[in-house]
Each structure stands twice: as structure tokens, then as C-alpha cells.
Amino acid sequence: MVDPQGYVTNWNSGAQRITGYAAEEIVGQHCSRFYAEEDQAAGEPVRVLETGAREGRYGPEGWRVCKGGRRFWANVVIDPIRAEDGRLIGFAKVIRDITEQREAQLALEEAQGRLLRAQKMEAVGQLTGGIAHDFNNLLQAVSANLDMAHITATRGDRKRTLQLLEDAQRTMGRGARLTGQLLAFSRRQIQQPERVFVSDLLAETGELIRRALGETIAFEMHAEAVYIDPAQFEAAILNLILNARDAMPRGGTLTIGMSNVSLTIKEAAALNGIAPGDMCAST
Predict the structure, then answer these.
(1) Residues 127 and 117 in one domain
(2) Number of domains comprising the chain
(3) Which long-range contacts (CB under 8 A, 24 or more apart) does 87-94 make?
(4) Is 139 a member of any domain?
(5) CATH number at residue 60
(6) Residue 66 belongs to what domain range?
(7) Does residue 114 share a domain with residue 125?
(8) How many CB atoms neighbour CB 222 within 10 A?
(9) pTM, 2 dp
(10) Tens digits of per-residue pLDDT, 68-102?
């Protein structure tokens, strides 16, 4: 128990067991002595009492300090105590040492994070292998066209030579687009928004999407012409595809919808302060 200013007025055996302090060492002392130094400097003890007095029962968690300086993670429940006339006369504080529970939860979250990262790395590894295969095919096509162009040029077949060079250029263009997708996926490309038909864009990326999804997941896209950066959009789609693949280990269908919307000021404010205006919405 503490008075309205935070000075300890009652100290039970449970508090002694958790903190190591006997009642004669603590009664009359301010409760801030159990807070970590950084929390004391930030005014946390006063804030906690003010919140409890204003809102009623209050249950924050944070570091507390035992006798000897050992820290423990505490769950604290604060109940204001009032006289019949409503006047605040003190607080009842219940403190629980939940250090072990917190460490177990953090360990579980870390293990889940490592598992997710491992799954992502596996998916990215498979995707990278497919891309390497695509690049190899592109290089072989360019090399073959250039070799043939060299032969036809020596024979004086100008028309066939130009045709072969144009084929090589088109193949190099496909390689440049694939490189753009990889740069966007790694966040290394400057955004260049333009109005595009998503279906046409995805048709060019179809092989990449199929490799990322695998054979057990079908892909559907319903979209109109939208104003986006094509490379950044492809990166977002690839991220979504990798997440969907992890979420559907037994296979399924990934369906994406996209359309243009115009947000009013009120609608934008409800979406975490996004600026109003024309937007591209996806589902």
C-alpha cells in the first residue's frame, strides 16, 4: 500500500519475498526506488500513479529492481483507494514477477522469427535458382542470335542479319526487365510511376510468378489500369506471393484484386493519416 504521493505505508510478506526488502527497510520510502534508473529519470513512477488515480485500475508492465540491484520484469496492478467523499487516500499495488514468462515468450517469438526467416530464405533460394535459369536461357538466346548474325553478315545477307540482331535486342530487353524486377525486389530502384494495365504487366512476369508460387498454388488477378511504378509493383506482388506460399503449404488459390479509388479527407484520416486523393487499392 502507498499513500497518494507514492510513499509506502504497508509492506507484506509477498512484497518482501519478491524484492528482498523487509518491511522496516521500506515503509516510509517512496515506491520509485523499485524502478529502473532510466524509468525514474523519465518520470515513470509519477506517471503510473497519476494514471491509476485518473483511470482507476491500471496494469502496466516494466522493469523493477530488487534489493542488491537485480532486475525483474513485473506485472503491476494499481487500484486507487478513495474515501466515502471520493477523496484519494492511497493506492493498493499488486506486483508479480513474470520474468520467466516474459523470457519464455521472447524465446518463442525469436524461434518463430527464425523459422519464418528460414522459410523465406528457402523460397527466395528457389526463386533465385529459377531466375538464374531464366538468365542463362536469355544469354544463350542472345549468343545464338549474335553467332548467326555474324555468319549471315559474312555471307552478305543483310536482311537476315538485321532480323537476328533485332531478336537479340528484344531478348536483351527481357533481361533488362528481369533485372529491374530484381532491383525493385531488393529496394534499390527509384520509383517511376506510370499508367499501366496490371494484367499486361503480370503477363510479362508470369514465369517469375509461377516459379515463386510453385505448382500447388493457382494465381488469379482482377485489376484495371492503374497508376503505379511497375517495378515496385512487381516487387510488392513477389513479396505477397512469397507470404501466400508460406501460408498455403497444402496449396490453394491466390486471388488479388486492384482498382483505382479516390479518398476524401475524412476517409484518408481514418487510414492512419494517408493523404487524400487518387489511390490504388488492392485486396
Answers:
(1) yes
(2) 3
(3) 88/4, 88/53, 89/3, 89/4, 90/1, 90/2, 90/3, 90/4, 90/9, 91/1, 91/2, 91/3, 91/4, 91/6, 91/49, 91/52, 91/53, 92/1, 93/1, 93/2, 93/31
(4) yes
(5) 3.30.450.20
(6) 13-97
(7) yes
(8) 12
(9) 0.42
(10) 888 989 888 888 999 988 889 999 888 888 888 88
